[in-house]
Batch of 3 targets.
Target 1
Amino acid sequence: MNKPFLPKLKIVLGSKSPRRKELLTQLGLNVRVEAMGVEETYPEELSPEEVVLFLAAKKAEAYKSFGPNEVLITSDTIVVRKDEILGKPKDLEDAGKMLHRLSDASHNVYTAVCINAFGLIRRSVVVKTKVHFKALQQSEIDYYLKNGKPLDKAGAYGIQEWIGMVAVEKIEGSYYNVVGLPVQEVVKILEEINDSID
Ligand SMILES: Cc1cn([C@H]2C[C@H](O)[C@@H](COP(=O)(O)OP(=O)(O)OP(=O)(O)O)O2)c(=O)[nH]c1=O
């Protein structure tokens, strides 16, 4: 097996998202998943940036103890169309409504990451990506609802799925941020943490 990237760091991923696990694994990091599951509620008055930072930090609160060199990563992604925050849909009907809201318009995807190293250092970052959707046909929405996986995704779509190929005209910013992890910013923070230990 190849040597891991940043081998001193033991990454604990506090997320049940298979995409986040896959991205960190692709980065070559040592990753162990320990998803706790918290209720994704937040105070109403928060801005989109504050919402994702709040939820990423809330997911981190569930962890109480850290082993040597353990670095906990928690994260949250939302979709924002005009002023409306779209999290994961309740059911397929809700998913259909979200896709109608996103059709023929642009929206922003915000992902925050909260990185807690050894229970001592906490670093957070939030990244925004703008996504432009074409006008979706009802038959396309119906096809995706039946054959795709809208329910575990913010805004009821996965850019990495069939709907991403069909709906997304262009994006401004990081693709990986839309999938749920702004990998470049994460690497930068992890490198800084790695440099701080001997
Ligand atoms: C917009 C978009 C979101 N998503 C995903 C990223 C996130 O996993 C999910 C938003 O829900 P989150 O609550 O951010 O994450 P999660 O429930 O998957 O995992 P956990 O709370 O345990 O960390 O939507 C995509 O995979 N593709 C996309 O195009």
Target 2
Amino acid sequence: MTTANLHPRLTVVGHPLVQHKLTLLRQRETSTGEFRRLAREISLLMAYEVTRDLPLETRRIETPLEPMDSPILSGKKLCFVSILRAGDGILEGMLDLVPSARVGHIGLYRDPTTLAPVEYYLKLPEDVRSRLAVVVDPMLATGHSAAAAVERVKQAGAEQISFACLLAAPEGLSIMAEAHPEVPVFTCAVDRCLDDHAYIRPGLGDAGDRLYGTK
Ligand SMILES: O=P(O)(O)OC[C@H]1O[C@H](OP(=O)(O)OP(=O)(O)O)[C@H](O)[C@@H]1O
Ligand SMILES: O=c1cc[nH]c(=O)[nH]1
Ligand SMILES: [Mg+2]
């Protein structure tokens, strides 16, 4: 099956630096500090892809030598929405590239038995509706957390929404295609499948635990 069959608006970020860093990130022996650093670097590179279509306008400026009309980002710009807690490992890198972006947080965890997302926190910027909202989480596994987070952002009035993750399972992409087919999804890789505990295989393990050293 090709990736286009899994999701109509899927981008796999194939840049060699991203792919190299993703391999290091996946490795069992990668330390917590190194994992956090790699996730941040990959996210910065992903932010470059995610923002590729931001609209530009022209501003009259003066260089030291003469005036010119030069391109500049137009209107209200970006809001990153992190799905706590592992989303914060992506947020840092995206903010490195776009330091002025607004930030929202959605606290979600997967119920270990039902795997349904349980919401425990929500705070979005008031003007999220006039920004491109980029929902971030390293893992798109069953897809239920991402689908629920995007739904929340839609309820807040946002009309332009993207989702960015490090790894996606085919199952999660199908759920996103069903629930939010118009929302572009960016990932660094589409892995083989989910296992019996809904972990992505081959995957990278538990992203939150690896980012924060909690296991
Ligand atoms: O696609 P899904 O099947 O919904 O799974 C993906 C979710 O699972 C992980 O979070 P987790 O529940 O482990 O919470 P954490 O970030 O607090 O560790 C991950 O960061 C996603 O949010
Ligand atoms: O593989 C997975 C699936 C869900 N959450 C993770 O952190 N890893
Ligand atoms: Mg986790």
Target 3
Amino acid sequence: MSDASLPAPTRTYSYLGPRGTFTERALAQVPEAVGQTWRPVQNLGEALDDVISGRSDAAMIAIENSIDGGVSVAQDALATVPGLRVIGEYLVPVSFDLVARRGTKLENIRVLNAHPVAYAQSRELLDVRLPGHGHIPAASNVAAAADLLETGHADAAVAPPGITDHYDLEVLLSDIGSNKNAVTRFLLVSTTRVIPARTGADKTSLIAELPGNESGALLTMLEQFSARGVNMSMIESRPVGDEMGRYRFIIDAEGHILDERMAEALLGLRRSLARLTFLGSYPAADRSAITVDPRFSDTVFLDAREWLRDILGADSRP
Ligand SMILES: O=C(O)C(=O)C[C@]1(C(=O)O)C=C[C@@H](O)C=C1
């Protein structure tokens, strides 16, 4: 019997720190995480290890940037670390400033600290304003800035706006990203087997490996989706890593595993692929309801199954 007077156990959420990263902003969008324990970690591996070992209940990870594309280290981890499930998706608009220790002049900057994803988005302007600069990759945007005061290896850092509220640094160039509408997509991952409820605005994430080097195998995979009216919102290939020329596909499709069309597509994929990993069904970050062609509604699939059951029921009578 549970005692209602006992406080509910607190939940722990890991995220890429230190405090002030975009990943922290993504976590701030999770209503269930408010008032719980937030654990800043140094890198993706540590965040996922927290979840697998049970130190944390969930981890927020960056999975895709609208300019730089998929975060390959995160995609590979989802494909290879067993037991992970995606339970939420969040979007964070990202912009960057160039910051430096007080008194630094732009013309004296030789070396920059920057997270690779942030650097890729700021290259265009940095190459013009700081031609010939060097780049030291940082573990996160905030770590890039903090390191200016800790080690002083670099002269400046690419950092999130507002960083100077927390660190004694000054902004030399603001809003240096090449696209003012840049967005990073984050996933909340856990080991729970509980699939988030169907909302009508859901996504399903999968990892697919084709059977050998057969012609038409990719088309057969795509047909599983198109034949059931399931729209794919993302497909990217990543090397499996064991030998040259073997790839796996990271797929996001519109819909929930409890949608009949999605469940049928998954069964078709399971039959035709060498390996299929279900990463999760979860509410899409934009919460915009999916328009389902009436030919692929739940009712149509259920009617077809009923029709088959009727035939088999009649024919199997003695
Ligand atoms: O969360 C942060 O602030 C990070 O530094 C990480 C990260 C990433 O891993 O892609 C997140 C968003 C930005 O697009 C750049 C970097």
